[in-house]
Every structure is written in C-alpha cells, then in structure tokens.
Specification:
CATH architecture: Roll
CATH class: Mainly Beta
Shape: globular
Order of helices and strands: HHEEEEHEEHHE
Largest sheet: 7 strands, antiparallel
CATH topology: Pnp Oxidase, Chain A
Number of helices: 5
Structural class: alpha+beta
Radius of gyration: 14 Å
Number of domains: 1
CATH superfamily: Electron Transport, Fmn-binding Protein, Chain A
Strand content: 25-35%
Distance between the termini: 40 Å
Length: 126
C-alpha cells in the first residue's frame, strides 16, 4: 500500500513541486541524484532548512526512499535551493531536536506534532 501511495505521489504532486523548485519558487528544493542501479539522473523535490555546513533535510518517508539511498550510495549529489546549485559532498545524521529547530515556526511545530525525528545534514562543498 505504501509503495503504491509513493508512486501516485511521485506522478502527481512531485511533478508540480519539481517545477516550483526548478524555478526557485516556494519552499521546495531539488535533489539531483544518480540512480544506484540505472545510472539515470533524477530530480526529487524536498524541503530543507539552511544550517552551518549545508542544509538540513527531514526524512519524511524514512531512509528507504530512492533519493536518499542514491545520495548515500554515490556519496553526494547536487542540491538546488532557491534556484542555486550546491554540491552535496556528505550526508550526516543530525540530532532530532536541532533538526526541528533548523526549520522556522510553524514548520517546527508541525514536525514536533508529527513526531519527526529523522534528520540529515546535507553537507555542501561551497
């Protein structure tokens, strides 16, 4: 069931949010990553918060989503924030409380209410 939901999400909402992220509009950023098996380049919209050393990402669907697994396997990716590309050179675990604080209010409250606890620092090389 979850896999089917993610497929529907990817074919509907992600198309719209990807367009916004490419244009540098709205809260969405793009992760440009290379498939572990296919070698194809993909773009996945996510929401990040700026932090010292890079950007904080909340893993809404956990560590088993393709974009995250591809980035970890490759050791990096390109993150496009506000239309500007940033090379990601490492992905590091990030403490939950600090991760929630990185996001502004009301997003911080929503993350706490939803008990989100999986955050990663996408360390940039710029």
């Amino acid at each position: 069931m979850r896999h089917g939901f993610l497929r529907v999400l990817g074919n509907t909402l992600n198309r719209w949010t990807t367009r916004l992220a490419r244009a540098g509009r709205g809260p969405f950023s793009l992760v440009r990553h290379v498939g572990r098996k296919s070698g194809k380049t993909y773009e996945t919209p996510i929401i990040v918060a700026p932090a010292e050393g890079g950007f904080i990402a909340e893993l809404t669907y956990g560590e088993n989503v393709d974009w995250y697994r591809n980035v970890v396997a490759a050791g990096g990716c390109e993150l496009v924030v506000g239309g500007q590309p940033h090379p990601v050179v490492a992905v590091e675990p990030y403490p939950a409380e600090a991760g929630r604080r990185a996001f502004g209010v009301p997003a911080r409250w929503v993350l706490k209410l939803l008990r989100r606890h999986e955050f990663r620092l996408l360390r940039t090389g710029d």
